[in-house]
Amino acid sequence: MKIKQIIPINGPMPIRDPYIMGVHHYDIYPKGNGNMGPSEDISDRRIGNDFDSTKKWRMYHGEKVPGFPHHPHRCFEICSIVDEGFADHFDSKGSKGRYGDGDIQLMSAGAGVLHSEMFPLIYDDKENPLRLFQIWINLPSGSKLTPPDYKMIWKENVPTKSFEDADGNSVRIRVVMGEYEGVKAVDPLPNSWAADPAHHMGIALVDLDPNASFTLPEVSESLSRFVLFYDGEGEIQVDDASVRVNHLLDLYGNQSITFKNGTAKSKILILEGEPINEPVAAYGPFVMNTQLELQEAFAEYRRTEFGGWPWGDTEMDLVNEKNAGRFASYSFGEVIDRPEN
């Protein structure tokens, strides 16, 4: 048997060390209202805390624009993949930007940072679907208090390979971390657990055409390995199990395992890595090693607010201009990065 368990997902994914949390947001937002909010009535929403999974879309903690206004993080790394739609980023280190439609953001909270992530509805003439993966990766104790860091990987620069399986069916893989099918990811953040290849960190998105097969090789007995079947119709075959969409596979890392797609296109997310094997004391946005460190982290935040928030407090201060395009700005605009067209 190569599968530990198969878990239906309707909320955060039950992943483990070196991962802290993983979520898959898919919201079919309506047309925009001209101010990057939804054109539909939101009076029935739980404004400021809208997470109703029975709805086609959510406002989350936003009141006018969907998203998450500024909040703190400390001592872990965040990998955000916006596969559809757009996200606006602002942080207390002077960075801001807009990314989406396949872009990836890596952010290390390190010793402490405030950031916001809002989902501007920039199209007023059509729906604004958003598909976002946000994956929290722990930092080892020696890296927890390093300076916060932030990096964009534009979709044009995401290492990608398209190939045919043995039967001539097409497979496409985008490598976010690690190496798959001979394709290496771009360099991770310097203090990331992924910076050491011996940690076997791997994050990848795989698109399978009908009847296509894809194999993950054996790595190690200690490897944490998860695969989320997040988009498609019908089922995929994994070992001797048939798996439906929105299910997470918890797999053994010391065995190769093949995914055989059904008769419709399917998409899977791979998350794997060696555990850090350190104690975890986590509460909300802080991930420490001990309860004392956790108490100290909250005390420091109350005292310093990790340098404070420089961008303004209204939601419209947390979104870029409607026609800003995709960009990243660092050090309060001293460095501007835009994807190559």
Explained architecture:
The protein is mostly beta strands. The protein has one domain: Sandwich (Jelly Rolls), CATH 2.60.120. Helices cover 4% and strands 43% of the residues. It contains 1 helix and 26 strands. The protein has one helix at residues 291-304; strands at 3-8, 19-29, 67-73, 76-84, 86-91, 96-100, 103-108, 113-118, 128-138, 149-153, 160-164, 170-177, 179-180, 183-184, 202-208, 213-216, 224-232, 235-238, 241-244, 247-251, 257-261, 266-273, 281-283, 286-288, 327-330, 335-337. A 7-stranded antiparallel sheet has the order 1-20-17-22-15-12-11, with no helix packed on it. It has a 6-stranded antiparallel sheet with strand order 3-8-5-6-25-26, with no helix packed on it. It is globular and about 55 Å long. The N and C termini lie far apart (47 Å). The model has no long low-confidence stretch (mean pLDDT 96).
Provide a compact summary of the structure:
This protein has one helix at residues 291-304; strands spanning 3-8, 19-29, 67-73, 76-84, 86-91, 96-100, 103-108, 113-118, 128-138, 149-153, 160-164, 170-177, 179-180, 183-184, 202-208, 213-216, 224-232, 235-238, 241-244, 247-251, 257-261, 266-273, 281-283, 286-288, 327-330, 335-337. It is mainly β and 341 residues long. The longest helix has 14 residues, at 291-304.
